[in-house]
Amino acid sequence: MPIPDIYMKGELHDEKRDGRHLPPAPVAIDYSTSPDNFDSSNETAAEQIAANLALLYHHMVSGATKPELFMGCRLRPGEDGACSGTGTIEAAPHNTVHMWVGNIEMPEYEDMGTLYAAARDPVFYAHHANLDRLWVLWRQLNGYDKSQREFDDPQWLDSHFYFYDENADLVRVKVRDAIDMDRLRYAYEEVDLPWLDARPRPSVPPNVARSLLRAKENDDNLLRMATNKGPWTLEETVRVQVARPKSTIKAREEEEVLVVEGISVENEMYAKFDVYINLVDETMASPRSREFAGCFVKMKGADMATKGRRRNIKFGISEILEDLEADEEESIWVSLVPRGGTGNVTRVDGIRIDYMP
Predict the structure, then answer these.
(1) What angle do CA 246, 248, 254 make, to 5 degrees?
(2) Is the pLDDT of residue 47 over 70?
(3) DSSP class of residue 327?
(4) Where in the numbering of this chain does the Tyrosinase copper-binding domain appear (predicted)?
(5) Is pLDDT of 124 > 80?
(6) What pLDDT is recorded for position 227?
(7) Which of 46, 94, 163, 343 yields a CA-CA distance of 20 to 30 A from 53?
(8) Could you give the CA distance from residue 320 to residue 255 in angstroms, rounded to a whole number?
(9) Where are the alpha helices (DSSP H) in 190-261?
(10) CA distance 336 to 60
(11) What's the confidence (pLDDT) of residue 167?
């Protein structure tokens, strides 16, 4: 989908948008700010749409089977309650669309591409309404009814904000007041969801990939790292062999989770990298391949709560491992692929596997 026509004229138009991404160009929710060997900027519209649908499948379905995977870590009041683990939907399409709309010729990628100016572009509000819609869809897909909450933590539900109402009176609204759409008296139009049927296929047959990876295990030039502990600077693709915990008996209702931890970005700059499992051929690396687990995306700048903090990101990988026929393996190979020329400012402390009930 391109930027809607209504946002291209009158008061809803913003001159500080990337001129390459104006209609009829379809949005690229796997966007990187500059071309590289793995960038999708040269894809046709049909190819870009296919990549969009596949990425949404990863970030809405297979990679986000649990609330913490979709919404991110639990944030509580105070310094001790801070956390820096974003959910799948925060990275993409949230951050990627911000960067895709913002003008990379501006010093801070204004307007949409930077935190301080994003809301100056009216399309900001349509973008965030769509993210709210995706939240509604995620709840429906995972069987939540209107009375259920993803988290029952009162510190979250009773957090409150002050607003002026239509009569200019100051009112207090709690989080629990704003997560019931019936009380807010709005609903989203029901439309087709083609991304539900966009489950990717492996780019290489799993039996072939398994043989190639085993043959390469002792070749330092092809598999760069043999430990899952960094830190690493992502100046180039980092490949890490990650053990699957033998002592853990995975229950059927548990999700196997890939954790990329201790992510730091120099001077709070923009950064992006993709995460792949058992990737053999990097020329075929894209969200359209089943090997894609998800992506990390950080917009330029930071608020005071997250400035200087190391970040983590988690992806559900149970379905991916089944499709790659790797669910019985003792270890997997994880590739961190830097995007948009940002690897030299990005460091990662380690990669591990957890299980989430």
Answers:
(1) 130
(2) yes
(3) T
(4) 121-132
(5) yes
(6) 55
(7) 343
(8) 11
(9) 206-216
(10) 21
(11) 96
Mean pLDDT (whole number) for 212-223: 68
> For residue 337, what are the β-bridge partners?
274
Q: How far apart are CA 280 and CA 158, in angstroms?
A: 48
Secondary structure class of 287 (helix, strand, coil): coil
Q: How would you classify residue 277: left for phi > 0, otherwise alpha for psi between -120 and 50, otherwise beta?
A: beta
Amino acid at 167: N
Query: What is the per-residue pLDDT for 226?
Result: 46
Q: What is the pLDDT of residue 153?
A: 87
Instruction: List, in order, residues 6 or more apart from 132 with CB less than 8 Å away.
Output: none
Q: What is the distance in angstroms between the CA of the first residue and the CA of the last residue of the chain?
A: 36
Strand, coil or helix: what is 291? coil
Alpha helix ranges (H) inside the chain: 45-57, 67-71, 88-89, 96-101, 123-141, 154-157, 181-184, 206-216, 318-323
For position 194, which CATH number holds?
A: 1.10.1280
What is the domain range of residue 107?
5-356
Question: What pLDDT does 15 receive?
Answer: 96
**Are 271 and 259 within 8 A, CB to CB?**
no
Q: How many domains does the chain have?
A: 1
Minimal CA–CA distance to 237: which of 54, 86, 92, 38? 38
Per-residue model confidence (pLDDT) at position 42? 61
What are 266-309's pLDDT values in tens digits?
A: 887 899 999 999 999 888 889 999 999 999 999 887 655 556 67
